Amino acid sequence: MCAIDDYTATFGEDPGYLNWAAFGPMSPAARAALTADADLLATGRAEGIAATAGRTAEAQAAVAGLLGSAPDEVTVHPSSTHALQQALAGLDGAVIASAAEFPSVTITLERAAAASGGRLAPRWIAPAGTRVTAAAVAEALDPAVTALVVSHVDFRSGYRADLAALREALGEDRLLIVDAVQSFGVVDEDWAVADVVVGHGYKWLRAGRGTGFARFTDRARERIRPVLSGRIATAAAGLPTDALPDPALSAQAYAVSASDPLAAGRLAAAAAEIQDVGVGAVAERLSRNVDALLDIADRHGIEVVSSRAPAERAGIVVLAPADPQRVGDALAAAGIQVTVRSGAVRVAPHAGTSAETLGLFDAALADAREFTSP
Q1: What is the DSSP secondary structure assignment for residue 304, as one 8-state letter?
Q2: What is the DSSP letter of 260?
Q3: Closest CA to 76 of 266, 320, 319, 286
Q4: 89: closest CA among 107, 67, 106, 112?
Q5: Residue 374 in this model has a pLDDT that exceeds 70
Q6: What is the DSSP string of 132-161?
Q7: Share of the chain above pLDDT 90, in %
Q8: DSSP code per residue over 308-356
Q9: What pLDDT does residue 1 have?
Q10: Residue 367 and residue 327: Cα distance in Å, rounded?
Q11: What residues are paired with 348 via a beta bridge?
Q12: Could you tell me which of 199, 182, 192 has the C-alpha nearest to residue 314?
């Protein structure tokens, strides 16, 4: 088998699972890393503790490999929200964000602004269809704007933002901060256009909860103060007692405390697994499964409200049947896991979604025909 087939063969979730945008069942590699590291920590031996302490560096290197960055630009966090807090709390000026963003963006930005003493102010926009485009951002620009924070893939519409176009609209004097939770590892993207990239491994990476991360470029570190940093975020060697050392000269300045080695080990294993097969290969296989879902929806006459254009999508397909809740209930009764929210059915396959799962989805929609069309 080729590498991508080896990778997709590791998917062992129950048939009917089409909810990767909500949660990614853990991969065998992540589970194996968790078990092995837990066994090392259970002994209390110094060598075991030391071995697991190295998992953070392994995770930084693996994530950096997918980002095309240096490992010292990457930090490991309990979640993407923790990482966004680091990025937003240290900013000044007006920060553009869609009011329809996932709450990890909107609430974090609002709280950072409230605590800033007037230094930071949200600049809320309401782009059509929740799609943050370069044109929508350009309309909100003025000299006070210092940054844009945006989800690479919108959780509601599935729209994939054009990062290169957003970078061009912002110019080089403003920061582009990207939440990549719904795309990292399954979209072949040039992450170099972003100044900050935050993500979480519990969805598409299949690494489980607690596996957040962030990348801070040199330019981001010049403009974002490490407001929330802790004891391991300094330039001092060892434990900084009886002193108040300067922040670290790397992304480590945006760390609070030592990361959970069990989470870091899972993140390292999951990221390395995708790096081995190649993001492009994963993205191509995922796109093939998205196409299959679109064909099924068309065959049953169900409106698709997410973009069909490959450049504007990742792994989220949004359907608008006549009665979304009843369709969702019918799918659940047939063992199909999706998300029903805001008057739509969100379906999210992965590269390893099986033909059996696609067939179950097709059959379930056929059974729910009375609820799918006007």
Answers
A1: B
A2: P
A3: 266
A4: 112
A5: no
A6: --HHHHHHH--TTEEEEEEESB-TTT-PBP
A7: 89
A8: -SGGG-SS-EEE--SSHHHHHHHHHHTT-B-EEETTEEEEB--TT--HH
A9: 52
A10: 10
A11: 19
A12: 182
